Amino acid sequence: MQSPRTKFILGGVLMLAAVVYLIVSSTQASAQYFMTVEELNAKSAEVQGKNIRVSGAVMGDSVAYDPETLGLSFTVAHVTGNNAEIELQGGLAEVLHQAVIDPSRARLQVAYTGPKPDLLRDEAQAIMTGHLGEDGIFYADELLLKCPTKYEEAVPEQAASEN
User: Fold this and answer.
1) Strand pairing category for 71-77 and 52-66
2) Is residue 93 one of the residues assigned to a domain?
3) What confidence score (pLDDT) does residue 27 get?
4) Which of 10, 62, 72, 152 has the highest count of CB atoms within 10 angstroms of its CB?
5) Based on the domain organization, do 9 and 66 belong to the same domain?
6) Which range marks the domain in which residue 57 is found?
């Protein structure tokens, strides 16, 4: 026969195991894979239809927006995801610039429905969450844009004024 203390410990262990299982399973279900444009192109068949995140440099001349339907489409160019490599190449602004002007870089067509973001311009970094369609177009549900050139000049002036 088991003592009440043994039953109490066994019940506690089972409850702890259940909580750990729920945390792990919910974390895996909501985890999103972050890819570069080259990685997405290489693994397109594997990730098609899955919810993923992709980053790339916006090619300004490809932006098309219809204010009636809120339909937005544009192309992004491959940018490395390695921060050390970005620093070696002169920083994010330079890497984004090189990505846009280099015709040999991998490209990805993006479709998004919603208001046109103010920062959607040439050489902005686009971080998109969505899925790759069978047609090879990335359908973005969320769109985050960073424009490093907008802030490059403001930082030294701000730092200088604090001294």
Assistant:
1) antiparallel
2) yes
3) 63
4) 72
5) no
6) 33-154
pLDDT < 70 positions in the chain: 1-2, 26-33, 148-163
For residue 83, give both structure tokens. Answer: 């921060």
Are 54 and 135 contacting, i.e. CB atoms less than 8 angstroms apart? Answer: no
Per-residue pLDDT, 33? 55
Per residue in 46-66, pLDDT (tens digit) is 888 888 999 999 999 999 999
Same domain, 1 and 67: no
Co-location of 37 and 5 in the same domain: no
Distance CA(144)–CA(17), nearest Å, equals 37
The reply to whether 92 and 120 lie within a common domain is yes
CA-angle at 146, arms to 142 and 147, nearest 5°: 145
- Considering the domain architecture, whether residues 93 and 54 belong to the same structural domain is answered as yes
The verdict on 69 and 99 lying in the same domain is yes
Backbone torsions φ then ψ of 59, nearest 5 degrees = -95, 105
DSSP letter, residue 71:
E
CA distance 53 to 130: 6
Q: Among positive and negative, which fits the CA dihedral 151, 156, 157, 161?
A: positive
Is pTM beyond 0.85? Reply is no
Per DSSP, helices labelled H in the chain are 4-30, 37-42, 44-47, 83-88, 92-101, 148-152, 154-162
